[in-house]
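Example S7 (structure tokens).
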């Protein structure tokens, strides 16, 4: 039964909360806005058909000069099924440009467990290496979650249409678009907040994903909702936010 599939919500948290993308900034104007890299921790409540089924967290921290860590974790459960996931990106910011270094993914719970490691090398022409998987030429792709650093900058500039290339949490090369569709004031567990609403554009129209970003929180993700063939898969809302 659909009501007993929290792992579908777990995939939504891993894919869409992280938004599975990273932009390729190509214009000089894109580099004129500084990246909003204030370390923070955001906590989200996950809902399925209105029921509270779990929690997710995103934490950005500084490791050293120009080097940062972005960690995502989620744990959801419903009835006898469960899903626990984590993503960890290590990256640098060089000349206001996000440069990925390492990406780790882990999933456990009902169904098969999975681990993934991806490394990005700038030596030579550049390579993306998926552990126990394929090796790709690196043409500006990023990992499954650090696109948000660039997206914040692009939204702050008033951009309304963006394209992203990335390596997803399965170790596959993918491309999505992001389209701004509205501005809304949301009532969340965190409180009322003004947001920019975007839609994730895929090649397939079976799934619809909407995300809301808050300008007052450096365009941090504050809500995400996904549908598959008209059925809601999950709705994630910001519960708490603190800078570090």
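Recovered sequence:
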């Amino acid at each position: 039964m659909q009501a007993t599939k929290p792992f579908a919500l777990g995939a939504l948290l891993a894919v869409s909360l992280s938004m599975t993308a990273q932009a390729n900034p190509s214009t000089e104007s894109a580099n004129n806005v500084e990246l909003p890299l204030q370390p923070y921790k955001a906590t989200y409540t996950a809902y399925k058909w209105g029921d509270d089924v779990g929690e997710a967290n995103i934490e950005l921290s500084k490791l050293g000069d120009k080097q940062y860590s972005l960690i995502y974790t989620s744990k959801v459960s419903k009835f006898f099924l469960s899903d626990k996931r984590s993503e960890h990106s290590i990256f640098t910011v060089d000349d206001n440009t996000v440069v990925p270094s390492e990406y780790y993914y882990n999933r456990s719970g009902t169904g098969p467990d999975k681990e993934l490691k991806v490394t990005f090398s700038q030596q030579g022409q550049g390579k993306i290496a998926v552990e126990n998987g394929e090796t790709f030429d690196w043409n500006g792709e990023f990992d499954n979650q650090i696109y948000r650093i660039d997206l914040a900058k692009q939204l702050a500039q008033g951009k309304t249409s963006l394209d992203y290339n990335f390596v997803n949490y399965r170790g596959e090369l993918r491309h999505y678009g992001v389209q701004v569709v509205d501005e809304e004031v949301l009532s969340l567990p965190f409180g009322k907040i003004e947001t920019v609403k975007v839609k994730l554009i895929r090649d397939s129209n079976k799934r619809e994903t909407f995300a809301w970003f808050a300008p007052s929180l450096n365009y941090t993700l504050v809500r995400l909702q996904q549908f598959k063939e008209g059925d809601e898969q999950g709705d994630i809302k910001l519960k708490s936010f603190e800078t570090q």
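Notes on this example. The longest strand covers residues 173-188.
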